[in-house]
Amino acid sequence: MWLPCGCTSKYVASSFARRTLASYLHVSGRSRCNVAAFMPEAAGLEGVSGRAALRELSVSNSESFWAAVARHRLCWSTPFHTVQDCDLSRGKIKWFEGGKLNVSVNCLDRHVHTCPERVALIWERDERGSEMKYTYGELLEMTCRLGNLLRRHGVKRGDCVTIYMPTCPLAVASMLACARIGAAHNVVFAGFSADALAERIRDGEMLLLIITVNQGVRGGKVTELKKTVDTAMQSCPTVKQVFVAMRTDNPVTMTARDIAMEEVREQKANQILEIQIQAVEDVVCEPAVMNSEDVLFLLYTSGSTGKPKGLVHTQAGYLLYAALTHRYVFSYHDGDVFGCVADIGWITGHSYVVYGPLANGATTVLFESTPIYPDPGRYWDMVERLKINQFYGAPTAIRLLLKYGDQWVNKYDRSTLKTLGSVGEPINTEAWEWYHRVVGDGRCPVVDTWWQTETGGICIAPRPSDPDAEIVPGMAMRPFFGINPVLMDTEGEVLTSNNTSGALCMAQPWPGMARTIHNNHQRFIDTYFQPYPGYFFTGDGAYRSEEGYYQITGRLDDVINVSGHRIGTAEIEDVVCPAVAESAVVGYTHSIKGQGVYAFVVLKKGIDVQEADLSRQLNGMVSEKIAKYASPDFIQFAKRLPKTRSGKIMRRVLRKVVESDLEGLGDLSTLDDPAAVQEIIQGHEKLL
Ligand code: WT7
């Protein structure tokens, strides 16, 4: 019999049977060498002296490096026989073949084995001051009950489960329960509309099941998540079951398809005091033995053309990369409280709220609220209350908080903070300096981390190997272990010198990279490997300084980044297109959001409509079909759009117009009718 200590969970760890899995807990022999103190996983590598040499070796002899790290960092039930089998020219990426393991065992059982009372999750609920803690023992129990529940309803290894939930312990347990029984998960950000949810469910014909909550609560506002699921279900006939958990006490209409995930254990005067995942489920759930390259999850992200793509990440390589980057980029140490405020609906939530921290046995924070609810001191109040050691957030929030002033930060004790992280978009110098000087009291390094849904984990960051290394504000700086970035010129040649800019590519595979696009390997090849054959193309541009440091300069394609949310301009154009004759969407610089959405539209002929009415209608359509954040900030009505003689819209010109950079309009000689540009410029000036 095991009981949790000092936790405020509503889930009672009743009879957690300590049937841990000794066979999984085998860690191969560790010998010591001089890098061992810094990176014990590299201890088996002969003849490496110092961090620089280790970083060098991680690229020059990446197989030895990753083999040593994988053996040390993960618990395998069967060791791998082949470190890697990759061919970037064909988009073939395989790591650790022959190896068998279970991701949930790596994230839970092995820590329960050594310290069951350690807190795994702190759920910073929307209601300030009502946080709840869950130990590793409790999280394992929740995961096992859920795993059994899913199994009992027919979910098998290889199936895929959609999770449409806000960031909360049940969402984490659902992800881990899928991993436990060998099903893939597809987490859809709970801010996405019914249409966007339905599209992501339909894309994979094997998606049978959905897990959701009755209502979401964020920033004091209730969102009707179950109702959104009901709407989405109208166009998803393959979905057989919907599991519904209760985030609020308000009942929702349940249909024959819906199954309550929890049951009420104690209730007084209509108030639910305690609920538990269906108690009939056993707290022991035999983990599926998975192959390294079996699918762990799909995650949809926007591209420059067409529909969002379901990137596929697999078991061992992804977990290893998330764990290793979590440990070294943030200088995480055992016992630290790691506070990544991202939503689990994005890759940042997957890698640095769930998998990386849990694989490392960390205490990870689940942030359900917003930076300004109930006031702009929310983050720092949380840092004080939860004693957060590493804080990882987005520049858009930092810019917003900066505007509210230092007093909201200074009110709270931030002495526990050791590292501050930034992710998702470039961080401008003003925000970087405020973050460093005010939030971190000038004491904490700010790590600006560059990566993508495709890369699985952080690829470029200031201090991957040296906690004392120099950091230049606003620069992502140095490649992580095993990462080999190159810059390409427009001819597709590698730029070898420093102080130069080009297209950012990766010359070598690494274990965390995505393996394919669900149901569309050809699109995977075309998007990432065909532009620069033999290299992985990131879609971003970068500058490499004289010292060899990297700075990300932004997307090279038609993807924009609104408050750290990636969106293809083509997706927005597709939504507005039925209501207008033609449209072109571009990003423009926005002081808080990083980029905002600016739409040019040409009205259908003969249609008599007030521009204000149509603007409202178009905004509504985008919110409904995609999400609120994608809704245009500006809609400019135009008689025509500037086009080349072959009829292509000249987006480059539109981008310059919205940035009011008329000097930079560039070569207009291919323009079909120069007067179109003048009209666009005048229309833009009127709108401002
Ligand atoms: C795109 C990836 C990384 C996880 C969250 C977003 C941009 C990301 C940075 C950074 C400049 C950045 C890039 C990238 N981006 N981090 N530190 N500096 N730009 O993941 O939704 O897949 O978006 O976000 O343009 O390609 P994502």
From TrEMBL:
The keyword Ligase applies. It is an enzyme of class 6 (ligase). Its EC number is 6.2.1.1. Residues 109-510 form the AMP-dependent synthetase/ligase domain. It holds the Pfam family AMP-binding_C. Residues 577-648 form the AMP-binding enzyme C-terminal domain. It comes from the Eukaryota. Keywords: ATP-binding, Ligase, Lipid metabolism, Nucleotide-binding. SUPFAM superfamilies: Acetyl-CoA synthetase-like (SSF56801). GO terms for biological process: acetyl-CoA biosynthetic process from acetate; lipid metabolic process. Residues 53-107 form the Acetyl-coenzyme A synthetase N-terminal domain. GO terms for molecular function: acetate-CoA ligase activity; AMP binding; ATP binding; propionate-CoA ligase activity. CDD domains: ACS (cd05966). It catalyses: propanoate + ATP + CoA = propanoyl-CoA + AMP + diphosphate; acetate + ATP + CoA = acetyl-CoA + AMP + diphosphate. Belongs to the ATP-dependent AMP-binding enzyme family. PANTHER family: ACETYL-COENZYME A SYNTHETASE (PTHR24095:SF83). This is Acetyl-coenzyme A synthetase. It comes from Astatotilapia calliptera (Eastern happy).
